[in-house]
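seq as requested:
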Amino acid sequence: MASIDEKDEEILKELRKNGRATLTELGRKIGLSPASIKNRIEKLESLGAIKGYSAIVDPAFLNEFIQAIIEVELLVDNEAVDRMLYNISRLDNVIGVYRKTGEFQILIRANFKDVPQLKEFVKSLSVKYLGKNMKRAKVSVIMDTFKEGGVIMQERKTRRRRRR
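struct tokens:
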């Protein structure tokens, strides 16, 4: 992996918080000229430190009211699993696919319009992969999101009781 300096790290941290920050805003926060920021961002892109740019979208605006985490326990871990993960990654409602340690080696984040669509997704995974690559799956529904993509989603105000 190519090395980056402290200024590059600062740029990455700022972009992670706000991918739409202007070169001028970044320069002001980091203490560099906009031209220098632009050059550094181009370098970071070419190194692969910046993988891409996207918006954090409220799934409700896409009629996706169910956000779920599907954890998969594998029977084996081989090239067929890599193909399975690639195929799952290509599905529109899938937000993230991760290989991890622990009892369940795969984590899938996905959004669905309703519970029947979630059930259909899990059923299709089972039909395609259960007994082949997949031993079992565990589904959890996300109840509330507080931070997503480095952005705090909603500020919670603590309620103070008034003394009477």
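Residues 6-47 form a domain with the Arc Repressor Mutant, subunit A fold (CATH 1.10.10.10).
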